[in-house]
Amino acid sequence: MAKKVKKSRRPAAQSQDRAQADAGLVLTEAIADYEAAIESRAPSFSAPTVLTLDAKGPSAAIPEGSVVVFVARKGGANLAQIASAVEKGDLAAVEKVHDRLAAAIRRRIEGDKTEPREIDAVPSYSELRYGSKTIARAIFLETPSSVDARVFAYNGGKLTPGKFQLVQYAKSGRGTELETLVVIRPPTLSALEKTILAQVPAAGSEANISVDMAFIGKIVRAVVNAGKNVVQRLAAAATKLTRLVITVDPQLVTVGCTPGCPTGAALMVATVSYVKVGGKAPSDGLPEGFGETNYTLELQKSATAADLLRIRKAMVVEQLYGAKPE
């Protein structure tokens, strides 16, 4: 009887496995380098300005059911203009500033060919906390718009403004005074959602806001020495990319839509991405089954604040991109 010869995997499959392994290794090393960088720096703390936006209509800048945080150097005009528009409930004015910042990012991406730098070369990183929960890491301002904007899903439950805190990690003598604007845009809640959220104690309000919704963004945006390689390898490893297309800047990962995003989407999509790597959705990104109508599932009385938050993530991304990924 002839001996059976075990067929080896196709070269393409082996190449894909190697690319996935490389991507994972680069990300792991980058995260470790980032953690080492901030551990070597003394933290400083500041309290953000927290505003609530009362406005109707879709928005790529501040979606309904989200918290959007803007960090900039103190005294700049951008945050003051956004704050003024938010206080007036003027969504169009917010969008106008958002579009201007997005345009600056697009110009940089199209024209910049500078080489990435080492992680520790960045003079200042910041992290955002809500209570004991770190909701955003690797915030830094060396971006074309001089503003770092992050978006968080929000289920409509209680949030205590005083629990927001910016922690800055600057190299000795190189810190820049920062200001932070937190804009809360509550979702329209059903009676059942209100009932569920009313059961969440004030001490449990951390369950009402997500961590930074980026999969690539929250790490790679700050990992300036690895950003190009990480995204190129992720793209090579992916069996399928959704309608979102990744574009890489040495200091910024931004995402565009195919065939096109809403006018001002570039700024927000810099912090929110959805990519299937190896056919699987990122575990720390959007909910399982995203791309289906999972946010229309009937809620039960046993649902939790976390269930509502998971649903809001899908709805926020739909507002950001104008449509769910295919």
Which key phrases capture this entry?
globular; 33% helix; 326 residues; 10 strands; alpha+beta; 4-stranded mixed β-sheet; disordered N terminus; 8 helices; 4-stranded antiparallel β-sheet
Q: What does it look like?
A:
With 326 residues, the protein is α+β, with helices and mostly antiparallel strands. The protein has one domain (14-321). It is 33% helix and 20% strand. It is built from 8 helices and 10 strands. The protein has helices spanning 11-39, 77-88, 91-111, 191-198, 217-220, 227-237, 265-269, 305-321, and strands spanning 43-46, 49-52, 66-73, 124-130, 133-139, 147-153, 164-170, 178-185, 244-249, 252-257. The strands form 3 sheets. It has a 4-stranded antiparallel beta sheet, with helices on one face. It has a 4-stranded mixed beta sheet with strand order 2-8-3-6. It has a two-stranded antiparallel ribbon with strand order 9-10. α1 packs antiparallel against α6 (227-237). Residues 1-7, 19-23, 215-299 and 322-326 have low confidence and may be disordered.
